[in-house]
Specification:
Elements lengths: L26 H14 L2 H12 L4 E3 H4 L6 H13 L4 E5 L2 E5 L2 H12 L5
Helix pairs in contact: 2-4
Length: 119
């Protein structure tokens, strides 16, 4: 998707599900949640996710996060897997792509595991 300024925008990601202590997950919620955790189960992806989440403003240019011990095509592959799992959004600005971890994803994943809804 792109806007009139030529910047590629991606829809915001949706939170995964309610806290595990609230009620049993539906089949759809379990599938969506497993996909997210499976994506984070790879050390390179977890590192990329952490680099983006901890970057100032929760957003990072691919040029700032590509030094994770694998080639650039492999970094792109892992970023795509994180996006496909609903953990990241991206925006193209000129020749660079910027990745963002949506705050609602972190909050939802946290609430899932802690059993508490965000305040």
């Amino acid at each position: 998707m792109s806007n009139s300024g030529g910047v590629e925008l991606v829809e915001a990601v949706a939170p995964c599900c309610p806290p595990l202590t609230e009620r049993p997950l539906t089949a759809e919620e379990a599938e969506r949640t497993a996909t997210m955790f499976k994506a984070l189960g790879d050390p390179v992806r977890l590192r990329l996710f952490s680099l983006i989440a901890s970057h100032e403003g929760g957003e990072a240019c691919v040029c700032d996060i590509s030094d994770v011990g694998v080639s650039q095509p492999t970094v792109s592959h892992h970023l795509k897997k994180l996006k496909d799992a609903g953990l990241l959004t991206s925006e193209r600005r000129g020749t660079w792509v910027y990745y963002r971890v949506e705050p609602n994803v972190l909050a939802a994943m946290g609430q899932l595991l802690t059993g508490r809804r965000p305040r």
